[in-house]
Every structure is written in structure tokens, then in C-alpha cells.
Specification:
Layout: H1 6-31, H2 37-45, H3 47-61, H4 68-97, H5 101-115, H6 120-131, H7 136-162
Helix pairs in contact: 1-3, 1-4, 3-4, 3-7, 4-7, 5-6
């Protein structure tokens, strides 16, 4: 029996879930809810069903067998594909569609720091270092790595649960 293509499965589910994440992000931006960190975090949770579906498809195409490494690889690759597409969309969004997002995020940080009672000098100091991470390119990289991280964690969990290795005695 031929091994199923991890890359094909990961690409398929990665694209599907990237589209879902992008639609979710557009809704958040259109409603102004992107400022709520909890609602923004949900996009990383959206990866979980994608990982489950990708690993499940691999297992089904492999006659019901799944070793831990194949499950982990399929799920993590799926998350990397979805994360890259979503991050590129985010880059395009903040550079072409709504160029004020970075400034709004900086202002939100200022308000949080001031609410914590930091001195104006400390707030400015923090914001200067924070703004170097708020460039569109850095946001793309950070977003992609966060998707990869969560995808890896979800893949670990799903692979442990779904694992069904072939018996060593099978020929």
C-alpha cells in the first residue's frame, strides 16, 4: 500500500481553514471587535478542527493506521499552511486596506500602560520598543509563528489520541 501524501492533505485542509480564519478576521475588523484579545485568540483555536480533519483524513487513507510522527507532521504542516495564508492576508490588510491598524494597536497599548499607572517616560520607552515589532513584516512573521506553535500543540494532542500503529508482525 502506498503512503498517503501528507503535503497534499495538509495543503487541502490548510487552504480551507485559512479561508475560514480570513473570513473570521474580516468579520472582526468590520465590527471593530478585533480590539478584543479573546476574540482575536479564537482564530488560533479555529485551527483545532482543521488539524483533526487533516489527521483523520490521513488515517483514513492509510487504512485506519496512523503513527504519531505522521499525525504530528500532517497537523503541523496543515497549521503552517493555514497560518502562512492567514498571515499574508493580514499583511495585505494592514498595508493596503486599513493602514491605521498599527497606530490603533499602539494607542491601545498606550491606554493599557497608562491604566496600569506607569510613568509617561516608561510608557514612551515601552512604546518605542513595541513599535519596532508592529511593522507589517514583523506582524506577518509573528502571526505565522503563533499559528505554527498552536498547530504543533494541537497536532501533538490529536496525534496521541488518533494514533493507531500497525502491528510489527504484519507483512
Amino acid at each position: 500500500m502506498e503512503q498517503p501524501s501528507t503535503a497534499r492533505i495538509a495543503l487541502k485542509w490548510g487552504v480551507i481553514f485559512a479561508i475560514i480564519i480570513i473570513i473570521y478576521s474580516i468579520v472582526l475588523h468590520m465590527t471593530g471587535l478585533w480590539k478584543n484579545p479573546l476574540l482575536t485568540f479564537i482564530s488560533f483555536i479555529i485551527l483545532l478542527p482543521g488539524v483533526i480533519l487533516a489527521v483523520r483524513e490521513y488515517k483514513l487513507l492509510n487504512e485506519g493506521y496512523l503513527n504519531f510522527g505522521d499525525g504530528l507532521g500532517t497537523g503541523a504542516l496543515m497549521a503552517a499552511v493555514a497560518g502562512l495564508i492567514a498571515a499574508v492576508f493580514g499583511y495585505i490588510y494592514v498595508t493596503l486596506i486599513d493602514t491605521t491598524i498599527s497606530g490603533q494597536m499602539l494607542e491601545m497599548q498606550r491606554e493599557r500602560l497608562e491604566a496600569q499607572g506607569l510613568s509617561p517616560e516608561r510608557v514612551e520607552e515601552f512604546l518605542q520598543s513595541y513599535s519596532s515589532f508592529m511593522t507589517p513584516g514583523m506582524m506577518l512573521m509573528i502571526t505565522w509563528f503563533i499559528y505554527i506553535f498552536f498547530g504543533f500543540i494541537w497536532s501533538l494532542i490529536v496525534s496521541v489520541i488518533q494514533k493507531n500503529s500497525r502491528s510489527e508482525m504484519m507483512f
